[in-house]
Design a protein that fits this description.
Layout lengths: L2 H8 L8 H45 L2 H7 L1 H22 L2 H21 L6 H30 L7 H121 L5 H27 L7 E4 L1 H16 L3 E7 L4 E4 L1 H19 L3 E14 L2 E12 L6 H5 L16 H11 L3 E7 L3 E9 L5
Parallel strand pairs: 2-4
Antiparallel strand pairs: 1-3, 4-5, 5-7, 6-7
Helix pairs in contact: 2-7, 4-5, 4-7, 5-6, 6-7, 7-8, 9-10, 10-12
Length: 476
């Protein structure tokens, strides 16, 4: 016995016939759950990206509100106010009007307060630093302006304090320069903000598109998995069941017809055989008439075998199941058929055996094995090899994968053509001259009665392997 094969069979435990299907169902549920989780994650990612995009857009909108526009106009308003102060100083210097001085002080106070209120509208550190410089320079400007005002009242009307006025002009020019810098800094800040916002929105847009693509791929994959693991097996099972039902209906109809015809033929054959036996008694042995009765008797025996085969196909006996080792029918068939095949130069050998247990009718199973060995020998004709084996495996039986024992007959014969394969198990179809075409049909019915499957694989001019698939018996 092949120890590796036996060891492989021993891995199957009681109840293992449902283990594979349960594992497949569990794996399908895990894949389905994984796809569902991935779809939820991608959907959450899309929701987050959409929410982030909306926030970014809202932030961009708020940053470009009236306050932001007002911040952009800060420098222009500052320059206008500064020019107003310069005008009041010049008018006061020339006209020496106290009202101009009062208006200057009032305008300076408002200007100072206005500078303080601009700080919250500025968005960058550079703008804040320039505004601080403007605030300091504005103090210097005020100092120069108050010095000019003081000199205007301390000196005679015909003496103009030009040096003090130039100082005011210098401080005013410095403030105007800082105002221009503030405009440039604000434009840079706004451009940078717009660029960053565009990059963020572009990234979020790509993220959403990528997530949508991944979601589409996941949904397509999920649909394929559901179709492959749920719909396809059901569809295949439905097609197989429909084909089996159609075949069973045809076979049942054919069986009823064949049984009726065989029964009607059997009675006349019995009468003919009896009359032939009577005639043989009155004829001289060796005479031509006696030789004719021998030929007639042989043909009657052949007809009886055909009738017996038809009745066996139409009403196969129920198997008397017993528990036996899978190697028993293989050894018995080899002992019985080995010498017969050796006369034609055909080597019958056993390649692999397992002692896994099966439940079968020993006589019916041996009948199937002998039929397969005879077909293999006829395919070889002379000088070849027929190999027998019994091995364990996981096969599809009864619509599900389960532990099984496979009994195989392999030959090195001619193989089976495509045309013959289509009708191989059809009753009364035979490629042999004088064949009844019932051997494989009966073998298939017997195997089906055992809850198994008869299958084959073949290659032209390379040989054919027939396999009897039977459920492995696991004691409880």
């Amino acid at each position: 016995m092949n120890l590796d094969s036996a060891r492989a069979c021993d891995k199957s435990l009681p109840g293992a016939d449902n283990l594979v299907s349960n594992r497949m169902a569990k794996n399908f549920k895990l894949r389905l759950g994984g796809f569902a989780l991935a779809i939820v994650v991608v959907a959450l990612m899309i929701g987050w990206a959409a929410h982030a995009s909306w926030r970014q857009f809202d932030q961009l909108s708020r940053r470009l509100t009236e306050m932001q526009i007002q911040s952009f106009k800060t420098a222009d308003q500052f320059r206008a106010n500064l020019q107003e102060l310069d005008y009041l100083l010049l008018r006061h210097t020339i006209l020496r009007d106290r009202e101009d001085q009062d208006r200057f002080m009032d305008q300076w106070t408002k200007m100072d307060q206005w500078i303080d209120t601009q700080r919250p509208t500025l968005t960058s550190d550079k703008e804040q630093r320039i505004l601080d410089s403007i605030n300091d320079a504005y103090d210097f400007y005020f100092t120069a302006a108050t010095n000019l005002l003081q000199q205007v009242w301390d000196k005679p009307s015909d003496d103009r304090p030009l040096a003090a006025f130039r100082k005011v002009e210098d401080e005013s020019g410095r403030l105007l320069g800082l105002g221009n810098q503030l405009v440039i800094a604000h434009r840079e800040s706004l451009d940078r903000f717009l660029s960053d916002s565009q990059k963020s929105l572009a990234f979020l847009r790509e993220l959403i598109l990528g997530a949508l693509f991944v979601l589409f791929v996941l949904l397509v994959s999920l649909a394929l998995v559901v179709y492959r693991d749920m719909i396809m097996p059901l569809r295949r099972k439905l097609i197989e069941s429909h084909a089996v039902i159609q075949r069973q209906e045809k076979l049942a109809s054919l069986g009823v017809l064949a049984a009726g015809v065989a029964h009607e033929i059997r009675n006349p054959l019995t009468a003919i055989k009896a009359r032939l036996f009577t005639q043989q008694k009155v004829l001289n042995s060796g005479s031509p008439a006696y030789e004719d009765t021998i030929v007639i008797g042989n043909e009657i025996d052949r007809l009886e075998r055909i009738v017996k085969g038809v009745l066996q196909f139409a009403r196969p006996p129920e198997p008397s199941l017993v528990t036996l080792s899978a190697d028993v029918p293989v050894r018995e068939a080899a002992e019985l058929m080995g010498p017969q095949l050796a006369r034609n130069g055909i080597d019958l050998k056993i390649d692999e055996l397992t002692d896994a247990m099966i439940q079968a009718d020993p006589q019916q199973l041996k009948q199937v094995f002998i039929n397969l060995i005879q077909n293999a020998a006829e395919s070889i004709h002379r000088n070849g090899t027929v190999t027998l084996r019994a091995r364990c495996g996981t096969e599809r039986l009864g619509g599900q994968s389960r532990p099984a024992v496979v009994l195989e007959v392999e030959d090195t014969g001619r193989g089976i053509s495509q045309e013959v394969q289509k009708r191989l198990f059809d009753p009364f179809f035979s490629t042999k001259e004088g064949g009844t075409g019932l051997g494989l049909a009966i073998a298939e019915r017997i195997v089906q009665k055992h809850g198994g499957v008869l299958r084959f694989r073949t290659q032209l001019n390379r040989g054919t392997t027939f396999g009897i698939l039977l459920p492995r018996f696991a004691p409880k």
